[in-house]
Design goal:
The protein has 6 helices and 11 strands. By secondary structure, the chain is of the alpha/beta class. The chain has one domain (9-255): 3-Layer(aba) Sandwich (Rossmann fold), CATH 3.40.50.1820. The strands form 2 sheets. The chain has a 9-stranded mixed β-sheet, sandwiched between helices. It has a two-stranded antiparallel ribbon with strand order 8-9. It is globular, with a radius of gyration of 17 Å.
């Protein structure tokens, strides 16, 4: 298997790759550690903005921490970018969520994992998923369907998708997925998230004990939606640093 990866300043090797998902060819952004070896795999599901430069940078950060890191482009079939024809920000988000609906995104994430596990640098027996915003809910749907994950990390995933965000035109709650998860899950939410109703975040905290393989729940006072993104107006450096520390500790606990 050949990949055209470029070595960056941090020593990780990264670049775009393509792989089959059913009859379709989809893409992802791959980063692997600098040193030779076999490393656990971490597959990331991005937010509704797609595989942005920030998301690529975080993909490389995961590799620098000692993982084969792949962010699957869930917008591969619509040109590698979120839908562009919209009139309002809310319409943009609705179109993005529908373009990356679970029915399409979950098979693409699984295909990405299957691809990554075949890489020479990968330890195929150890894998995890991380999801941000849109992807924070998608990794829960994936984790309920696969036994190939040893850990799941969900950052500010919307607990209940409104009807306009789904292809079926009906609200879709993520809460019933918790008893079906085949791996432990770690949740991160901002305490002042204006994009997610506070009662929905409260419901995730209340439902966390129902997670089949255990759950951690973390809420960061004063942090808004997308607080982990250092290119976003809501970036909260302290919350982002603590989230990252907890995420890496969780991955190390379950993958090493």
């Amino acid at each position: 298997m050949k990949t055209n990866l470029i070595t960056g300043a941090d020593g990780t090797r990264s670049g775009w790759v393509h792989f089959d998902s059913g009859p379709d060819l989809v893409r992802g952004y791959l980063a692997v550690p600098a040193a030779e070896g076999r490393y656990p795999v971490v597959v990331t599901a991005h937010e509704n903005l797609g595989v942005t430069e920030h998301r690529r940078e975080v993909t490389r950060r995961i590799a620098a921490a000692g993982y084969v890191s792949l962010t699957v482009d869930l917008f591969s079939r619509v040109g590698g970018m979120p839908p562009q024809n919209f009139d309002t920000p809310e319409e943009r988000r609705s179109l993005a969520f529908r373009a990356a609906a679970d029915e399409r995104a979950v098979p693409d994430l699984q295909a990405g994992l299957d691809f990554a596990r075949e890489l020479p640098a990968a330890d195929p027996a150890a894998a995890a998923a991380i999801g941000f915003c849109l992807g924070g809910g998608t990794v829960l749907a994936w984790g309920a369907q696969t036994r190939d994950l040893s850990a799941i990390v969900s950052l500010y995933g919307i607990p209940v998708l409104p009807a306009e965000y789904t292809t079926g035109g009906q609200p879709r709650s993520r809460l019933p997925l918790l008893p079906q998860l085949n791996a432990p899950v770690q949740f991160h939410f901002g305490g002042d998230d204006a994009a997610i109703p506070a009662d929905q975040i409260d419901a995730v905290e209340a439902a966390a004990p129902t997670a089949a393989r255990g759950a951690e729940f973390h809420r960061y006072p004063g942090a808004g939606h997308a607080y982990h993104d250092d290119t976003h107006p809501n970036h909260d450096a302290a919350a982002a640093e603590l989230t990252w520390k907890r995420t890496l500790a969780f991955l190390d606990e379950h993958l090493r």
